[in-house]
Structure to design on (869 residues):
């Protein structure tokens, strides 16, 4: 079997190796950097589509790197959750690439800081391409130590990107961010050490077979989970997120908020619902759910109180991440059935909606020179498409039908009620109401046009900044109408999910 | 066996010391050093896991390779963190100077 | 001023006595360490591992040293990503600041120059030896690269005037060289055997040596660039031709 057959598992390396080469070239060359990055983003999307085709027709696959079989080699794998995360990353990544192009060319127009902005753009592309490499590697990897390396790849590139704007506030936030991710990775690595000493293997499949209720393994799970929770910014550990996300450049905020946080969350999800499932107790799941519930309410209240749009969107991320964790105790209806696929679907809907929202915030900031919410009056006259995108993304964040957010929350609600855990349902509803308040608070300013409003356009914003935001917002809306497709992909190679969604329809 | 245990415990204590310092101290340099001490602790435990007394089986090379990877990662992260800390220090000092100037200006005009 | 004094006295006091929060934290950390320590204590005497599995495949790896076999053959993909981590650190550092060089050129200290002349060629030799030795004993790209990096740091500390004039583009090529060779070999193997980094057994040793040599150069440059602390002088698009005068000065 050669590498070129469509059924060959070697296709799995495409989403990893292509952005990697693009990152090297972006660093090496001075010209046509954007063309390189755009080609890589497009090819990445194409590669992911081929992988999805493979999954649907040939089932889940394993790719042994270097041809070495598992215990000594590293394995990559494709299955429903991995591919759905890859698809989300590829789509959002393409939109961010286009948006960043528009963003930087708009800023370079300003002659005073052109050199500085050129400099920022020069380093944005290689950092972003290597971050994409790390994310794709993380979603595909099936080896706990390789996951550590990808986590570090993501941490370094994300922190460098967060510091890119050069403002003191953003650099301080980036420094904290780097330290926190470092602490998270080290705690994770300590967990890996415990696991290796207990089991003697690094491959996730082998670990799953060796899983037993030994103290070493339980300690490993606890350490790895704490490390990843720190990176995912669940409630008490979320302190670093709002400053880092709100002070970065707009395309960077999109990447950090929509994709980077999801990477570590995806790992938590893998560990809790696949590898370590036999040793996870109901009280542990309830604990995660409680933290998630507090995060939902706390994040939403903070979001309501923020004076600046980008900070509001950043706190909304804290709140929305809570929804991903409140799903943990709801995945065990009647003891053993897992409906965890919803969590991935929800992460997907949030990634699209949140990146659209951060793009809107960035466009507004660039257009007005500030993002104070109370001074945003009448912006809809100048940026109609952007405001439309904000509205649609808001619909998905609030969880109104027919958005992707609605389907996810509805599935969670019904699961909470059928398993008679009504208190989770209460939190979900309260969180949605609070989300409605903070989204509409901004919206009301967008639409109020003061008497003396001057309809001037200082510099027209590039269409590259407006349309990607709208496209992502529409995707988050359409996810609700076409929810059966992603859920069908999720069900591939998963016996339990396939029983729940036989035709793919929820 | 006692060797493995000794190294593991030392590593664990280093990790804990680093963690405590990282949280209570606010100076960036101390924080970076604390993280370095923590990573050294983890590597020590990892290497100890590979140890076998002479003649009692082969030494496991996989943890060695993992530690080597870890050290390289730790070096690069430390360098980046140090640079970032320098930048923060420079810019925040500049801020302080600016604020001083602005505070000083109204006083001068009053006089 | 007064607030600063307060901060200073507070930070002085901090060394003397811990406040309530710190005490609780200390207690927590001690409890955690004891817990983890007791878990390590109860772990089995002979921990399971991959030593036997690696030894079984050792002869197919093309190198004699088990660590090198794991690092560059069995888990070569890890190492590829790790080389990227190093490069990322440089890119991040270059995006933050410009490298610091003293403003005026000063007379080189004869002792320092002597040390550089004596040590740097020797360090290059040692680095090359370490890379070559990596195939059968302890050693390899990282060890060799570390020595090269140390040589670079030594030259930077001596403030050799030629370092100021190093143009950015060749430096970038040098930094990317190792990763590019690595990826190139990986893809070459993909077309040859159908596996990324799946070396053909008879040429594995040579391919690994090629990767190690390229990576050692890049790692050395990376470490030295990180020490220099920022991007070189002519990163700006509009740049003047560099002064290439005294670069030969390091040769006696």
């Amino acid at each position: 079997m050669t590498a070129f057959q469509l059924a060959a598992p070697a296709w799995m390396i495409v989403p990893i190796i292509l952005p990697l080469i693009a990152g090297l070239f972006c660093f090496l060359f001075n010209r046509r950097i954007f063309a390189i990055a755009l080609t890589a983003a497009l090819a990445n999307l194409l590669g992911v589509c081929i992988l999805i085709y493979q999954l649907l027709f040939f089932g889940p696959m394993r790719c042994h790197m270097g041809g070495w079989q598992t215990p000594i080699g590293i394995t990559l794998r494709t299955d429903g959750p991995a591919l759905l995360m890859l698809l989300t990353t590829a789509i959002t990544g393409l939109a961010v690439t286009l948006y960043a192009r528009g963003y930087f060319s708009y800023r370079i127009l300003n002659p005073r800081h052109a050199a500085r902005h050129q400099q920022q753009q020069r380093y944005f592309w290689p950092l972003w391409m290597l971050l994409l490499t790390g994310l794709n590697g993380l979603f595909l990897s099936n080896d706990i130590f390789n996951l550590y390396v990808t986590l570090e790849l993501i941490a370094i590139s994300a922190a460098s990107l967060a510091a890119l704007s050069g403002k003191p506030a953003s650099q301080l936030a980036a420094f904290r961010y780097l330290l926190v991710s470092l602490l998270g990775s080290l705690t994770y690595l300590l967990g890996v050490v415990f696991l290796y000493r207990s089991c003697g293997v690094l491959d996730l499949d082998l670990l799953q077979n060796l899983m037993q209720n030994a103290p070493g393994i339980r300690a490993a799970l606890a350490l790895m989970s704490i490390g990843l929770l720190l990176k995912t910014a669940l409630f008490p550990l979320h302190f670093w997120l709002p400053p880092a996300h709100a002070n970065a450049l707009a395309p960077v905020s999109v990447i950090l908020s929509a994709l980077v946080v999801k990477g570590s969350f995806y790992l938590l999800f893998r560990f809790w619902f696949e590898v370590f499932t036999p040793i996870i107790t109901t009280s542990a799941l309830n604990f995660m759910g409680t933290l998630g519930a507090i995060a939902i309410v706390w994040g939403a209240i903070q979001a309501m109180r923020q004076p600046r749009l980008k900070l509001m969107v950043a706190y909304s991320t804290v709140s929305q991440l809570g929804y991903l964790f409140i799903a943990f105790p709801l995945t065990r209806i009647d003891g053993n059935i897992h409906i965890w696929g919803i969590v991935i679907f929800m992460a997907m809907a949030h990634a699209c909606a949140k990146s659209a929202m951060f793009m809107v915030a960035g466009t507004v900031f660039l257009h007005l020179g500030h993002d104070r919410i109370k001074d945003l009056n009448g912006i809809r006259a100048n940026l109609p498409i952007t405001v439309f995108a904000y509205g649609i993304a808001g619909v998905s964040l609030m969880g109104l039908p027919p958005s992707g957010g609605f389907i996810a929350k509805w599935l969670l609600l019904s699961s909470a009620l059928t398993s008679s855990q009504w208190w989770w349902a209460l939190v979900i509803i309260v969180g949605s109401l609070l989300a409605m308040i903070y989204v509409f608070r901004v919206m009301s300013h967008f639409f109020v046009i003061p008497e003396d409003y001057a309809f001037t356009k200082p510099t027209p914003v590039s269409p590259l900044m407006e349309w990607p935001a709208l496209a992502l917002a529409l995707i988050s809306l359409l996810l609700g109408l076409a929810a059966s497709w992603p859920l069908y992909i999720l069900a591939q190679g998963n016996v339990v999910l396939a029983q729940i969604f036989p035709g793919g329809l929820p | 066996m006692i060797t493995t245990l000794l190294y593991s415990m030392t590593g664990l204590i280093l990790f804990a010391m680093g963690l405590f310092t990282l949280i209570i101290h606010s100076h960036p340099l101390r924080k970076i050093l604390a993280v370095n001490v923590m990573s050294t602790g983890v590597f020590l435990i990892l290497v100890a896991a590979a140890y076998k007394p002479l003649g009692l089986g082969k030494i496991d090379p996989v943890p060695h390779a993992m530690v080597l990877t870890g050290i390289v990662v730790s070096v690069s992260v430390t360098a980046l963190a140090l640079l970032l800390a320098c930048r923060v220090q420079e810019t925040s000092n500049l801020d302080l100077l600016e604020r001083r100037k602005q505070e000083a200006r109204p006083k001068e005009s009053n006089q | 001023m007064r607030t600063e004094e307060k901060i200073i006295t507070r930070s002085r006091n901090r060394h003397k006595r811990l406040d309530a929060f710190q005490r609780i934290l200390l207690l927590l950390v001690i409890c955690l360490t004891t817990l983890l320590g007791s878990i390590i204590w109860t772990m089995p005497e002979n921990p399971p591992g991959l030593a036997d599995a690696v030894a079984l495949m050792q002869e197919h790896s093309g190198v004699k040293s088990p660590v090198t076999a794991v690092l560059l053959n069995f888990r070569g993909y890890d190492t590829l990503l790790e080389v990227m981590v190093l490069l990322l650190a440089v890119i991040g550092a270059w995006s933050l600041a410009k490298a610091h060089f003293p403003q005026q050129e000063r007379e080189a200290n004869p002792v320092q120059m002597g040390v550089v002349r004596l040590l740097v060629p020797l360090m290059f030799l040692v680095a090359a030896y370490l890379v070559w030795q990596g195939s059968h004993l302890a050693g390899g790209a990282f060890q060799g690269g570390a020595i090269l990096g140390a040589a670079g740091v030594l030259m930077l500390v001596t403030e050799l005037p030629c370092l100021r004039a190093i143009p950015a583009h060749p430096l970038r090529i040098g930094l990317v060289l190792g990763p590019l060779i690595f990826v190139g070999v990986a893809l070459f193997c993909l077309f040859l055997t159908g596996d990324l980094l799946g070396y053909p057994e008879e040429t594995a040793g040579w391919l690994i040596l090629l990767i190690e040599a390229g990576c050692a150069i890049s790692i050395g440059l990376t470490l030295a660039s990180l020490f220099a602390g920022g991007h070189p002088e002519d990163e700006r698009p509009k740049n003047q031709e560099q002064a290439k005068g005294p670069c030969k000065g390091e040769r006696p």
Summary: Chain C touches chain B through 47 residues (CB under 8 Å).
